[in-house]
From TrEMBL:
It comes from the Bacteria. Pfam families: MupG_C, MupG_N. Gene3D superfamilies: Aldolase class I, Cyclophilin-like. This is Outer surface protein. Residues 2-229 form the 6-phospho-N-acetylmuramidase N-terminal domain. It comes from Lactobacillus psittaci DSM 15354. InterPro entries: Aldolase_TIM (IPR013785), Cyclophilin-like_dom_sf (IPR029000), GH (IPR017853), MupG (IPR008589), MupG_C (IPR043894), MupG_N (IPR043797).
Length: 343
């Protein structure tokens, strides 16, 4: 499942609604928002939440709100389950202040996301003792606005393995790549290594790690990234953006061969179509280059490859194009039989 985020510290506008609409149409199913960000006033939060719950309900999107006891108090609310239900959320992420009894009662009436990073075995035992509905409990990681504070990959993997042992679904955030959220404007990833990566790559990386729910932490997504999500959700296609247009590549759908090579991605349709017959540019085969074997490679003529690691120039191999830097990390996620498209 994929989701996006809405910042209630900013006024909701027609652009906000259009963003939710395009994300829903792309295949995203959930929305996350915080009811306790320090930069938003209680009046602003409640006004925005009323509008947001209506939009999400109309669009068929789930809406999870980040709550704490102190934050609810500022909104003029108590922490009782029936009071929280009146917010119109389809689920809540519990922050500070709630004890096991309160969380257990809340889990009886709605989905509850616990803090994935801090939950302990004693917390789980306490929740069991309070008869929590574990079918309604999930484990959600934080996002980290300040550079260098995002989670370590190995620790993240170990924590998630432990959480899944207890049956929790795990959620994590990836940064957006348009209209980054303030006041730091440095992305909102869960993993620090994703801070300056493409949104699409970071999302696929989390899914490869077994994360069940991936949400974009920032408030917007570029058209290029959205198109990659659309293609992926329509048959797990990987869309690579070209530095310069190459119509012969963009007009076809390609597939990585069933056998996976170490140094290159081999497009199985290349030799059959043999689209680049004229001897082309001799150049070092840098990572991300697209190459075509020429007639000097005899029966390999027409072989199309994407280079995964720097290779020397070869008179039998012509460099015909280059994928954009932002898509380089996707090279490591191409699987055997993977469908690939170029734009």
């Amino acid at each position: 499942m994929l989701g996006c985020s809405i910042n209630l510290a900013e006024d909701l506008t027609a652009n906000t609604h259009n963003y939710l609409l395009k994300m829903r149409n792309a295949g995203f199913e959930g929305v996350f928002t915080s009811l306790q960000a320090p930069e938003q006033t209680p009046e602003q939060t409640l006004k925005g939440l009323r509008e947001l719950t209506k939009w999400c309900n109309d669009l068929g999107l789930g809406l999870v709100g980040d709550i704490s006891k102190e934050g609810l108090k500022l909104l003029g609310m108590d922490a009782e389950a029936d009071s929280i239900q009146k917010l119109g959320l389809t689920g809540v992420r519990i922050d500070a202040g709630f004890n096991s009894e309160e969380i257990a009662k809340l889990s009886q009436v709605m989905p509850v996301a616990l803090n994935a990073s801090t939950i302990s075995e004693s917390d789980i035992l306490d929740l069991r003792a309070e008869h929590a509905n574990f079918d309604h409990l999930e484990a959600w990681h934080n996002y980290y606005p300040r550079p260098n504070t995002g989670l370590d990959r190995n620790w993240f993997i170990q924590k998630n393995t432990w959480l899944k042992k207890y049956g929790f679904k795990v959620m994590a955030f990836v940064p957006g790549d348009s209209n980054l959220r303030g006041p730091i404007f440095a992305g909102l990833p869960t993993l620090e290594e994703h801070r300056n990566k493409s949104t699409f790559y970071a999302a696929l990386d989390l899914l490869e790690l077994g994360v069940d729910l991936v949400y974009i932490g920032d408030n917007d997504l570029s058209a290029a990234s959205l198109e990659q999500f659309v293609e992926y959700l329509d048959g797990e296609k990987l869309l690579f953006h070209l530095r310069e247009p190459i119509a012969k590549l963009s007009e076809h759908t390609w597939h990585q061969r069933a056998d996976l090579s170490r140094d290159v991605i081999r497009l199985e349709e290349g030799r059959k179509l043999n689209l680049f017959q004229k001897l082309g540019k001799l150049a070092p085969r840098k990572r991300g280059c697209i190459t075509s074997d020429n007639e000097r490679y005899l029966r390999y003529e027409g072989e199309l490859e994407i280079i995964k690691t720097d290779l020397p120039a070869d008179t039998r191999v012509d460099v015909i194009g280059q994928i954009l830097e932002r898509d380089m990390d996707l090279l490591e996620l191409v699987k055997a039989g993977q469908t690939i498209e170029f734009k």
